[in-house]
Amino acid sequence: MSWSILPQWILPGKAAETPTESKPTNTIPNVSTKSQDYSVAAEDEGDREGTPKAEPARTAIDVPTFALSEVDDIEPISEPTSPPATSFPALNSAQRASSMAPPPKPAELPAKKPIAGLMAPPTRLPGVQRAPPPSSASSLRLPGTGPLPNRGPPIGSQQRISSSLSPNGTAVSVPNPRGKVLLSPGHSPMDWAALTRSGNLAGVPMFQRVTPSELKRMTGRKGKPAWSSWQGKVYNITPYLSFHPGGEAELMKAAGRDGAKLFMEVHPWVNWENMLGSCMVGVLVPEDYGVKGLEEID
Ligand code: HEM
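A: This is the predicted complex of the input protein with protoporphyrin IX containing FE.
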């Protein structure tokens, strides 16, 4: 690019004189930070020998200048004219309202004119007693008649009885509508549950095949254990006798026989298998089970 074709006043100083120089001096002042640097640099440039002097066009449009220091001198912008401050609190504030005179009593209110299109309220019959409005307090009151609300276990249930165990350590028969007994201390349903977790309560080393005649002999008397069957399985009910909420005598009715019928008559909601699982002796087999087996072998 030839420098000679450019007007003199835009050529860089040295470059204009020695166009053969490979690198034109960068004379662009550093304007990165302050604008005043530019003017200083421009003066330096003008002082150089041989440098064409370009007079700044003084006729340029005056750019209004602004300096921060002048800000203080600027007349503060007057705020929009507002009405003179009213006294506190405001006229329509709640504070004023509270100190104001109370509103007129309903009796003093002017009689309301019936609004067009709406019916007038029904007139009250003289002498008719109106019931008090239902309140939350009235719903808490116990009804004078009818059943009491369900609160806790029913009267006579095991939960209520177990809170008053027999003091002398024996199951005591007490008259109550469901035939519950007082269980001796340490014989609550919780105690039984703990005992069943402790180990095998069947009283036999391994599962047995029990014939009906054999079951019949296990009555809990004459030193024999009490066994009872339930759905083809035989259980030793002896350990449970003192834990039975219905009493030992009731439970003994099932000894030496199938107890399902009696059991289901009294408390079908009780889970026999769960409660007596650790007391299982074996399974009930037909009377001739062993004999048949031996005959088949022969
Ligand atoms: C052999 C297995 C049995 C077990 C595991 C057993 C268990 C129970 C349990 C847990 C209760 C308390 C029920 C409750 O609080 O709701 C109870 C109560 C009672 N049981 Fe048994 N029972 C058995 C057999 C029998 C038998 C054979 C009879 C009667 C012949 C009987 C008569 C009663 C009676 C009268 C009550 C008290 C009333 C009641 O709770 O409804 N139980 N028994």
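The longest helix spans residues 35-47. The radius of gyration is 56 Å.
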